Fold:
Amino acid sequence: MFRIKKVVNNNIVCALDDKNEEVILRGLGIGFNKKSGEEVPQDSIEKVYRMDGTKSMNKLQELLAEIPIEYVEVCTDIIDHAKEVLGRRLNNNIYITLTDHVSFAIARKKENLEYKNAMLSEIKCFYPQEYELGIEALSIVKERLGITLSIDEAGFIALHIVNAQLDTDMNSMVQITELIHKVLEIVTDYYGMEFDEDSLHYSRFITHLKFFGQRLFKNKETTSDDKVFQEMIKHQYPKDYQCAELIRQYIKDTYKRKITEEEMIFLTVHLRRISM
Structure:
């Protein structure tokens, strides 16, 4: 059961659930002629939005009050489809960030002010599944809203989805993508070879770099007391460890951050696998 706390507009209300937790409800005419304290009929609810914290709840309310309800519906369907395809949790803030982005992209499209995505090729390479979801999102927007967004927007949408998976902010997501690109340049130059981008080891390396970047830009370190294992890897794979050293030096020079020895060992093991 939900009781109305505040009517945002005819189609959006802020409500309290059985646990007295605040949620946002969407439904056609759900707020029409309604007042605070009234119970919301279950059959009028199309979507329940639960956010993490009052600040996020207020931001979502403000956003949903400003944009057309059909934009909200389309973006919610895009997000829910992404959750289903990926089979994993997405940070609830994506309902704010992606909806805001798509709404703004549509507004820019109408004014012929579309943005170019400078990282489109990297996004396609590093986040192929999310990029495909971005392509599908463009199709949904075109089919439901009759608006054709540029292919660059598929990349932007993909970044929002990756961002929601890693639970980080968009600025860090851009930094992580740039970091992956530079690390691959270092690795390719060091080994003097092109890697099989379709291989399982390469895919695992890219995934490792995503979470490595997340830890780096959130200042979260991985540590271990297993010095014996660390020394064994260093001596068993000296060439690969040296490549990891180049990556560590780049990060120190560029971001003024240090990499723990455990991170170095993880990098070394992945480098060994992709270079075999």
